[in-house]
Specification:
407 residues, alpha+beta, single chain, 19 strands, 7-stranded mixed beta sheet, 24% strand
Length: 407
Amino acid sequence: MAVVVTMPKLGLTMTSGSVAKWHKTEGDKVEKGEVILEVATEKITYKVEATESGVLRKILVQPGVNVPIGTALAVVAGPDEDISHLLEETPAPAEPEKQAKEEAPPQVEEAKPTGEKVPVKATPIAKKIAKEHGIDLSIVTGTGPGGRIVEKDVLDFIESRKKAPTAQPAPKPGAGVPKRVPLSEIRQVIAERMSTSWKNSPMVTINADVDCGAMKKLREDLKEAFKARGLNLSYNYIFIKACAVALKEMPMLNSCLEGNEVLLHEEINIGLAVATDEALLVPVVKDAGGKNLYEIAAAGDSLIEKARTGGLSLDDVSGGTFTITNLGMFAVRDFTPIINPPQCAILGVGEMKDRPCVWCDQIVPRPMLTLSLTFDHRIVDGAQGAMFLKRIKELLENPLLLLATLK
């Protein structure tokens, strides 16, 4: 029986998606449950599996084309099955949109060779500017009375010369040609969102060192109890819990700016950046403020497994109100994380490492890490950001405070 593969709805807010990659070509045999293509939204790439066995008879949408949910992408049917009626009901195969041609830059007029040099009419200020920039006035078009070259003509010529394309030097003999790697759909979205964040949000980053001795002991004491429930007590879940407690106490960090108003979110939804082969994804632990440490670990383990196997839905990565990004495993001490718009703040976590510290009047090695909080200065002042970071430090250094709701 012929089956039409359509653009899936991967989340409540999803309205469209694009084909990122076809794993099969027309005429290939397809088994039920086998991945036949990947679709991309602005946040995730999702692998689409065949619901029936058969042959991929027709591909209707090519990679790079954005289409509404429910749009027919392909037809899977028997090798000799008549699919003409299905093709009549679907539009012609879509092709990738061609990029709009860029407006050609102004052409720079070249001087025409002449036997004699013709005097050029130009105002004194125009001559002065031309001399300063090494410009031959004979190739500048005058717009003043009688074709006289005025100041604006020279300035316009200088500007047009800046925009004119410059010849690229030919590669030296034996030199390799630089490799060009196109950005993936997700990478393009990340690039756009990070550029928007950097341009629109005046960001400030502050750092604080945390003594992790008590937190390490807590994790060791509770690890087996979590393991008995099939859970992994990651340090990241302790960070999530600490941030949830601090965000409850200081809700301005759990907000976003809408026009001239600050929107304080009712729920605390904390995103945890997870590295995958293709991009950095941020699955969201929903209602982290209402969860105990067991529940945070259960939600986190499930999301991380989905992220690494490509099973995240759009809802899994939507609705975040605060983000944590941990680069400690890469031996990074501290860094400047960029806010995930429209959120107000993001917490960066550095490497946990023994450092010499004063402890009980002695210099001893202590497990330390550095937290880096970046916040939107339009919403939060420096003192508020500092108090928030100080509170997280207190909770991590006294982690028993986090167990008040642990069942």
